[in-house]
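Researcher: Here's the sequence for the chain we discussed earlier.
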Amino acid sequence: MSFISQVTISIVIYFIIRFFYKQEKSLYIAGYIAVISYILIYLTAYEVISLMPTIHFMVTGLSLLIIFIAYSEISILERKIRNLKKGELLNIEPFSVEKNYKIVFKLLGIGLLFLSFSLVSGFSLQTVFSANIIFKALFTFIAWFIFVITVVGVKYFNFPIKYATRSLFVSMCAVLGAYYMNSYLVGA
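Model: Thanks. This is the structure I predict for it:
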């Protein structure tokens, strides 16, 4: 089973749980189960496990999973806000949109942490520091810089959490895109 298939199965498990369990804690429960399912799927798919490649692929897959969960939650929140602005109040869940944005912001921080672990484990797999790994380190540093700026903006300058979450998500997608496009750019 391929790496992307494992992440996709975990995402499907996440959506199934979110669809059937509609409580305030459903995001947490679905996220935890999706993460655990990814780890279990990864460990059962590979019989021979060496430590550093396993850690590298596990944290890379977890960062992909968490970023995809954050994307889906941001999409759901944006749809809720659009429906509220239209005046459609029939299908509104009892939990706050602002609270969910804070949760997604924390999720993106966790995704960035996993992306950083992926970088560090990637350093240990490389014997020579190539342009590929240097670009990844640079893009991860930029993502951390954006994350710190948004946290400071939210804490001390009353930057709305909705815009902080959106900007952090865009930067995380840019970093993730840079990670995958980097091998094509450097190899070309």
